Amino acid sequence: MIKGYMMRLLLVGGCALTLIACSGKSADEKAMENAELANYTPPFVMSRLDYGGVIERRFRRLDANNNDKLEPSEISPRRRALVMGFDTNKDGAVSVEEWSRGMLVRFDRQDLNHDGTVTSFERERARELHDTDLPTPDDEPANGSAAAAR
């Protein structure tokens, strides 16, 4: 009786181990899949309309003294020349209108097929051509400080 019980136990255990070994992916395959999912970047698509909101929020965050103008001291040294290039009336500051116009020109330059949206491919192509990347809502700082926006 004990011998029959042991045989059944070994048979059931062996079947269970076989099922486990044959089912699913190996630990290495699962680890690789999890790593790929963790590093997944969804495709980027931004419409010109959505970008208008990003432009406005970015301006408000950069305008530290709330005078509706971006002055050189409010812009990081790395981006100062680019932003001050938007100063079309040459008064030494960038108004919200100048900022919007300049940023939309940048958007339109990256919109290669002129369909009103910028995709991941178009962003990458702009990077290859050394055009500064468009900021996205994710680039906006969590707090409202202008220093964090730079």
Automatic annotation (TrEMBL):
Which residue windows does the record flag with biased composition (Basic and acidic residues)?
Answer: 121-133
Domain of life according to the entry: Bacteria
PROSITE patterns recorded for this chain? EF_HAND_1 (PS00018), PROKAR_LIPOPROTEIN (PS51257)
Show the segment(s) annotated as Disordered: 115-150
N-terminal signal peptide? 1-27
Key words, A-Z: Signal
Domain named EF-hand is located at 86-103
UniProt xrefs under InterPro entries: EF-hand-dom_pair, EF_Hand_1_Ca_BS, EF_hand_dom
A Pfam family found in this protein is EF-hand_5
Name of this chain's protein: EF-hand domain-containing protein
Q: Which species is this UniProt entry from? A: Sphingomonas hominis
